């Protein structure tokens, strides 16, 4: 039975990687996955709720190629062209239903074109939410970025994007479903 479960898990993992790779290649910005850099030293504060603290150890954002990254210090939001990213992220409540970070939004102003544009940096608040519980981990399914302070011309004050997630566990069937 364990061999069957292992083979099934390996097949599911392989198909997930292929599916996520196909999604990462899509050029639609609103559906773009994120590229994240691990958050070692990113200022993550520990959750006080023991259940949240336990979940935090297995909670991730999936980056542009589907790799899990916990409490990332940086995130590429526009994977197709790299024209928008978040840096210097300091997280609170990682592993809770919503985690919040402060950091810097870096966006290409695309003036006169994106190829010739200049990066504009502004302070930002980041919220990840819509957590999806998988068999062995959890992933956030939505990222909302809000500019803090004056909003530069051509930039939106608030942006929300879907994120790639793990396959959810069917609550009726439980783990291994």
TrEMBL record:
Residues 155-177 are annotated as: Disordered. Keywords: Signal. Residues 1-24 form the signal peptide. The keyword Signal applies. This is Uncharacterized protein. It comes from Nocardioides kongjuensis.
């Amino acid at each position: 039975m364990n061999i069957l479960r292992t083979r099934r898990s390996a097949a599911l993992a392989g198909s997930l990687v292929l599916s996520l790779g196909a999604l990462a290649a899509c050029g639609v910005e609103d559906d773009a996955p994120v590229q994240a850099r691990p958050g070692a030293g990113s200022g993550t504060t520990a959750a006080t709720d023991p259940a949240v603290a336990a979940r935090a150890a297995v909670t991730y954002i999936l980056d542009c190629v589907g790799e899990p990254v916990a409490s990332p210090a940086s995130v590429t939001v526009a994977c197709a062209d790299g024209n928008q990213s978040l840096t210097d992220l300091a997280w609170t409540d990682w592993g809770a239903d919503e985690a919040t970070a402060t950091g810097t939004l870096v966006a290409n102003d695309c003036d006169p074109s994106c190829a010739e544009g200049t990066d504009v940096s502004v302070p930002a608040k980041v919220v990840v939410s819509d957590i999806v519980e998988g068999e062995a981990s959890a992933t956030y399914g939505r990222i909302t970025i809000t500019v803090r302070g004056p909003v530069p011309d051509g930039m939106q004050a608030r942006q929300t994007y879907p994120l790639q997630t793990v396959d959810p566990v069917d609550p009726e069937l439980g783990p291994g479903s």
